[in-house]
Amino acid sequence: MNLTGPPKIFPNYGDLNGTGLQNEDLDSNQFIDLEFPEELFISKLNIYETYHPGRLAAIKFRNKKLKFWKTVWESSGDALEIDKSRIFCPELKKVLFKTNQIRIELCNADNSFSQLDAIEMIGTRHIIDCVRSETNLRKDLEKLLHSENLCDVQFEVDGQILKAHRNILISRSDYFRTLLCENLRPDRLSKPVHLSNITLESFRALLYYFYTDCIKDDTSVEICCELIRLSDWYEIPKLRNEAYMFCNRVINIENVCDLYNAAINKEPKLEEIEKICLKFISKNFSALQNLELNRLPTELVTKCSQFNSLFKY
């Protein structure tokens, strides 16, 4: 068993050598104890599951002073049918002690076990209560966006009207500050502002980012590529970086072809995203060969096949 260091198998899926947990390692109702180099106030765990995800029963943190294991997450007990690797980020209960010891309890579902590739622990050396306040503020602003209370500006996109709050937009983008303040026409606030360079779904994603300062987890890679382009058009450099990191984080065997096509089939081409895709395709060429490669240009497939050594992470 070897769960140390960065992922070795992910994002590949299957009963593969090198994963931290093999089927024959465990009987039912057993657990893995992990000890990290440094004690932290743990806020997040990233659990890389590469085979039969969803077989975890509980997660516990060790309180060294009181010498007991605190349960911070428990499974609902519902069986999951997932046939691809995933990064599982359980919603952890808040604890007020530092630790570097974690227990992962496993359950035997249909005589099959999850295979784990790596576990990443994220936390702080000092307790920070502002995280909860930041989360609440984000949720409140998201509610404000959806409720449309006191909206004072309208946009027409793809024939539909979307409402927003001018103060939020002008505080987030120099483009909208100029549009809605400095160059404000008398009819700007009484009539919808027509936007022709953006799709409805892209503008919804842009508004969500304006209000919450984040990209929704279920955002498609195509929309994320559009956000990168819009970040230049609407002068939002931070959004460009966020969207780039989002694509880098969510790329997998199922969406890499969509991501590549979204990056190169529209101007301006997104060279950074193209490079991410080239590296991923080259590294996972054998897994993709019978699945998705027919959706990519022939010259790209040939290039990745012949020169995959050039695209190592």
TrEMBL record:
Source species taxonomy: Eukaryota, Metazoa, Spiralia, Gnathifera, Rotifera
Protein name: Speckle-type POZ B-like isoform X1
Domain of life: Eukaryota
InterPro entries per UniProt: BTB/POZ_dom (IPR000210), SKP1/BTB/POZ_sf (IPR011333)
Secretion signal, residue range per the UniProt entry: none
Domain named BTB: residues: 151-219
